[in-house]
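2 proteins. here.
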Amino acid sequence: MNTTIVLLPTSQKELDTAVQVIKNNYKFFIVTEEDAGLEIKPEYINEPKNTICVPKGSSFAQKANIARQLICPSTDILIFLSNANEVEITEEWVESRVKAFRIEKVIGIIGKLFSMDIDKQIKLEEKMLTNLIISPEEFAARCKLQDGALRLVDKNSFSTTTKVWDKIGGLALDSEDPVSEYCCRIQSLGYGLLPQPQ
């Protein structure tokens, strides 16, 4: 499957480390903010153009959505990495995500499980139940763990298919937590969430 890794770096070290691991084996796209002080070295740039600088203060959702619009249409899998210092990126790490999508065709997103505090969860559930055509019981069955917590992945490191991303329309720009909302939206449609360790 054709995979593109989207780097949303927060430091030079993070950018350099990620690129060194992936540059020879994977397509990648770098999204930086104006005045972020990050050096995009000549060896990081390839054709078609794989870098974009967005206005300072752009949200995670804005950066991710812009990246998807500019990435080759033939890409099947998107792997988003932000604050990648928390993730040990190896070829095996990338391949484990790609392989899971090959095996499980109903998987919509893969990542490290993320816990949301109860007040935010209630607010997100209310929004989802208002905006989605799904019963509370069906929402719970599809989107919650056995303990009642929402089944979500961490935004710093997640993978999804372009088929699902494009069907959903990407990340909601008006959301306080767009990746968590994305997780709920895709699970509500019947796509699976596969938790994976860092």
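next one coming up
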Amino acid sequence: MGSTLYRASESFYLIPDDVDLDLGPLEIRSLDGGMAQVDPLSVARFRVTESVARAFAKRAATNVADRLESSVAAASSALASMTSDVEGLPDQALADLTAQLQQLVGTFQTADLTTDAGRASVEEQLSNLRQAKGEMDDSADG
């Protein structure tokens, strides 16, 4: 069973996913933006240091980056095996999409997801990826 990292102001909590917490006035947020109102006493036993929180976030980001990197490598290999003379194949758009995927992998490997700035960096890369995908779709259609 896994755990989820939450933050409340300057405190971090690593809460097992199978634990039900009592409702209360403390607002905690997970790295993916989830929010809960919990009783401070019910989460006190799950409080961790900032260094433990950063290490957990780094491991989680590395796991995601590794899976994403494998997917990007497989997609790049498949694209490379296609010939550029296939009618309608948007070569530049595919190259741009692949580059955005690789940048996203790099961001996951380096961003500190326990900070607003780190999460904003990932969101920016995801936005760029969506834009590159849209351009590839437009190129394929037209």
